[in-house]
Write a structure and sequence with these properties.
This protein is globular. Strands 10-21-20-14-17-16 form a 6-stranded antiparallel beta sheet, with no helix packed on it. The protein has a 4-stranded antiparallel beta sheet with strand order 11-13-18-15, with no helix packed on it. Strands 8-7-9 form a 3-stranded antiparallel beta sheet, with no helix packed on it. Helices cover 31% and strands 25% of the residues. A hairpin with a 3-residue loop joins strand 16 and strand 17. With 454 residues, the chain is an alpha+beta fold.
């Protein structure tokens, strides 16, 4: 596998070496026009390859740097955010090549409000390479850190402006910002949280785009070096209410093993707070843990819970979409309305809505039931709300309805479906739940209830 990777890297470098010269300099060609931005990316790639031990032509690299220095675009005060971000990256590349002048960062720092978060990360790294003691660097890091979106899933960053011209996304921004903190402030707790978030938001082992994947791999590789994960060597202990429940040692041999502990609910203190304590000794590596409390209660006593998402569920007759009901005649159709509120954007969300035992879900896409509306009116669309189309995968099961979404931006979502009251009786209705698939502690649930079929 490594041999194949080396061959691919060498092939890419050979293509770079084969690029044409332009006006005595060197650039990546795009038709009949040279592109300083692409040149900056190629130079950055050559610098990364050189630092990784690959043989690089010194003359090719020097010509690329020289071309970039001579063709740096002018940055005006009213330039776009894309222009500011692009300029910050070019300054960072020149700094990596040890060719950045001390005064070249003054203008862009003075107008840093125009920069995106990843542009500020580039600028902070460039200034650090010029002078690690530069008093302006903490200002940039503080601006970036204060913009972090924190949750139980970790930390990530969301741009106020979508910089399509620089192939950017919020995942790419998170990776670039993470890499900046690794270089400038590796002990900051936000780095581990950002690593956790990046590792979770992958699809089939990679991220959504080549840009996201490239920058994520760069940041995570640098994190492994900075955190010394593969040099892990420390002792740890876990205690509950003053008693030891686990002791052990983490090292390179058992680094990928997981220790699972379980305490019965009856052993917890009921009249005072319970203290779960994790401790670790000196040594390299990080201690990772999660803790969950699972308990069962009578369904009708369960109250809503908001841990990053809130849910509510109501039942209605078809002719009155405003008055919720708790009972209906057997054989009648019932409209179920789920409302999901997401304060911050979430990824890979799964929503489970259990059915009362006396109900069966109706697939309204199958026009086989005369009582199921064949067309939707304007009122129906008003009832369904705005955003239900984000749920791209819907499963109508015997016991519940399952909704899935790869991505939900911050907002309120309403989803409705039909069920038939098929069995008489009074039934406890399990609350609806929502959670991120990779981080089940980010989510929420609705209230439990009773429903009667007469």
């Amino acid at each position: 596998m490594q041999a194949n990777l080396d061959e691919q890297v060498y092939a890419a470098l050979q293509r770079i070496y084969a690029q044409q010269l332009y006006d005595g300099g060197w650039s990546w060609w795009d038709g009949d026009k040279s592109d300083p931005q692409t040149t900056a990316y190629v130079v950055y790639g050559l610098l990364e390859a050189k630092e990784s031990g690959y043989p690089i032509s010194a003359s090719v690299l020097a010509k690329g740097v020289e071309y970039l220095k001579e063709h740096m675009p002018d940055l005006r005060r009213n330039a776009s955010t894309s222009d500011y971000n692009r300029h910050a990256f070019m300054l960072y590349v020149l700094a990596r090549a040890d060719q950045l002048g001390a005064g070249q960062t003054n203008f862009i720092f003075a107008h840093r409000v125009a920069l995106g978060l990843f542009g500020k990360a580039y600028l902070a790294q460039a200034m650090h390479l010029l002078d690690p003691e530069d008093a302006r660097i903490p200002t940039l890091l503080s601006d970036i850190e204060s913009a972090a979106v924190m949750s139980a899933a970790g930390a990530h960053w969301e741009e106020a402006y979508k910089d399509y011209w620089n192939w950017n996304s919020d995942t790419r921004t998170t990776a670039i910002v993470l890499n900046a903190f690794i270089q400038l402030d590796p002990q900051n707790p936000i780095t581990a949280n950002a690593v956790r978030w990046l590792m979770a938001h992958r699809e089939s082992g990679h991220w959504y785009s080549t840009q996201e994947t490239t920058w994520s791999l760069i940041a995570l590789t640098n994190w492994l070096v900075a955190s010394k994960e593969y040099e892990t060597d420390y002792k740890y202990a876990v205690g509950l209410n003053g008693e030891s429940i686990q002791q052990g040692e983490a090292n390179r041999e058992n680094l990928t093993e997981t220790v699972k502990l379980q305490i019965e609910l009856e052993k917890l203190l009921k009249d005072k707070a319970n203290y779960l304590v994790f401790a670790r000794g000196r040594g390299a590596g990080n201690l990772y843990y999660t803790a969950y409390l699972s308990a069962t209660l009578p369904v009708e006593e369960i109250q809503p819970l908001d841990q990053g998402m809130s849910l509510s569920r109501e039942y209605f007759t078809l002719d009155d979409p405003k008055t919720p009901i708790t009972e209906i005649e057997r054989g009648e159709l019932v409209k179920v309305r789920l409302t999901i509120v997401v304060p911050e954007a979430v990824h890979y969300v799964v929503i489970n809505d259990p059915l009362p035992a006396g109900m069966e879900v109706i697939d309204s896409t199958l026009a086989t039931d005369t009582l199921v509306p064949s067309v939707y009116t304007l009122q129906d669309y008003k009832e369904r709300g705005w955003g239900w189309w984000y749920f791209t995968h819907v499963e109508l099961r015997d016991e519940k309805v399952v909704l899935s979404s790869d991505y939900l931006p911050a907002g309120t979502y309403v989803y409705t479906y039909l069920v038939r009251a098929s069995t008489a009786g009074t039934f406890r209705v399990i609350p609806p739940t929502a959670s991120e698939f990779y981080f089940p502690d980010v989510g929420g649930r609705g209230a439990g209830s009773r429903f009667t079929v007469r």
